[in-house]
Amino acid sequence: MRKLFAFSALLSLLFLTPQCDVVDQPFKGGTIDTTSSEQRRNVLIEDFTGHRCKNCPKASKEIANLVDAFGNDRIIGLAIHAGPGNFTGTSTDYPTDFTTQEGKAVQNFFGTNFLPVGMVNRENWTASGNGHWSNYANWPTLSAEAMDSTLRIALEASASITSGQLNVSALGFPQASLLHDLKIVVLVKESNIVSPQLMPDDTRDPDYVHMNVLRDYVTDTWGTSFGTSPMVPGDTLSGTYTLAWNTDWVQSNAAIVVYVFNPDNYRILQVIEVPVD
What we know:
Elements: H1 2-16, E1 27-28, E2 31-32, E3 43-49, H2 56-70, E4 75-81, H3 85-88, H4 101-110, E5 117-120, H5 139-147, E6 153-162, E7 165-174, E8 182-190, E9 193-194, E10 197-198, E11 204-205, E12 209-210, E13 213-217, E14 224-227, E15 237-244, E16 254-261, E17 268-275
Helix pairs in contact: 1-5
């Protein structure tokens, strides 16, 4: 019931807020059309999870519910398999190692040492405290608040593979004066991976479908410079990023996530997801 109540609250909030009417975000090909003024602030939900964490499927389902309601252009999930080894370790029953060194570094920095737990656009981070952590039951409300907030930078990106190399191009368009530097992060995620998962009823689902799994970072884990203060509307920021493509990844199931954040407080200002052409 708590989940239904939270989800109903999200729907009510969005319909009662005129500037957040749900309409399709404009696209041109595989990129967001930033020549339009209609791009709005999107949401990155970093879902710390594990294949031996029995409550983690509930968190994944919450992301799926939000994507169904608002589209994968507004709600972008990222499943980071990191945390205690009893949740993420491999065994005969759970043979796939979904962990990455980068994912572990993010988990260690933000201090999320229990599962499931997440962050929504890394809001409310401080050097001490845990205000940036959130339970999946709170993600609908937190997502509504983020989507209703002011967009400070619009993003556009495209991704393709040439001769075994992933090539990503990104553009940024300040929508307001930015008086702090910016960093950009580019990463690869993959969905529709069939591998065992411990379920809430303590059973093992051998055919569980894992979604939004972090595979690797194209940039450094903590990003690379994307703009130097001050930046104002009318400026265009740009960058290109490359990574050797891992042939174990299924290209049709992969996507590139691009986000820009304030390095002073790690707050994600905008995030987009594009396919790999």
